[in-house]
Design brief:
Blueprint lengths: L2 E2 L3 E3 L3 E2 L5 H10 L3 E9 L3 E7 L3 E6 L6 E7 L2 H4 L13 E8 L5 E4 L5 E5 L6 E6 L7 E7 L10 E5 L5 E5 L6 E4 L5 E4 L8 E8 L2 E6 L3 E6 L7 E4 L10 E5 L9 E6 L3 E6 L8 E5 L12 E4 L6 E5 L5 E5 L9 E2 L3 E3 L1 H5 L10 E6 L6 E6 L3 E7 L12
Parallel strand pairs: 24-28
Antiparallel strand pairs: 1-4, 2-3, 4-32, 5-6, 6-7, 7-8, 9-10, 10-11, 11-12, 13-14, 14-15, 15-16, 17-18, 18-19, 19-20, 21-22, 22-23, 23-24, 25-26, 26-27, 27-29, 30-31, 31-32
Length: about 400
Amino acid sequence: MGVTSAEVLQPLGFSLSRSSMESEDWMLESISLYRDLHDFELQEVTRVVDWSGDAGLCIAGSSGGRRHEILQLLFPQKLLEQQNQGLCPERDLKVQYGGFSQHPVYSLRHVPGRSLLATTSPSPSHVQIWQIGAEDKDVILPTTSIPSSPSKETWTKIAVSGAASPCVVHGSQVNGVNVTEIETARRLYTLAVSSSEAIGSLSFLDSSTVHLCCLSGRQIIADIRQPGIASEGNVAPNMPGDRQWVATVQTDSQDTRTKIASLSSEGHITITDTRDMGAPLKCAKVKSSNGPTPEDLMCICWAPRLGNCVSVSGLDGTVHIYNTEPWDAVVKEVDALFIHRGHSAMGQCEDGSVPMVTVHSWHPWKERMLVSAANDGSLHIWDWLDGPCRADNCHN
């Protein structure tokens, strides 16, 4: 895949891999909006990013070709500083470890505390486990293949648990959801439900509890220590006409409730909690320059250090950040707290179209730093500035 960036053009940390009058105008306009903004160009499009500690980033190729690189990258020194340090000699992402997949990677998760990755592809439907730094070298090698039930509607979704014995929950439809011990490939749990509904996203609430969001909007919580469904709800009846849903769980909150943010292909967001997943506490309609989007690009994330903020991508060529604190249960269109327009402003696909954002993720501890990627091969690392989010209402 490879990563390249050009010379530094701005003292705030800007780097460009392409130039045009339009992108230069946007860069000048954006100087007041970012503490840091770096633009890297990948040789292959990625739709997966995940953190390996505070300084490492894992990505993998998803476009055409016979082989697809899987890389663990090291962040530039400048971006790891607690405070803005101005110019810094090391500004590029460095490849720490690398390997190759014979299939495009659509899902990737780094196992916390371990040198392991779990990935899935559209075909075949198994979960592939990878060893980072295998054989004491700078390589990523496949180790174990875990069978997973196929679905015609979507590929196998995954989530990992960083417990003492790490596990992966995987499945593409409800009646094929399993929890498997990663290091032994021993199946620990199978969801005993007959439904063949396709899965939009999977998450661990804790080491024993799994959350499922179906593409239909149905939400399920299962306790892997007992069979069947622990609780369920459905956000779709509150948003009629929405075709597909994905969700994210706020796993590190000071609130006694576990909050779930769900995103539909029509641009609706609902906030629920695990006590009643069918009754949204807050709702909103977000703005998008495109029409309905397929679920394979939809991405919603909670900000780990800004408890009421969620971010959304995949609806167009931007990443939107929203403060959910003032929302209520009445659906209305809301304005974004911040919009990252860098991919659409600076990039262009080979067919001349505006790039679509494929994935984004928040840094584990830097409050306003995110990484985002688009289908033109661009990878952005950005630390945004915005007055309102310094207020207490963006925190728990």
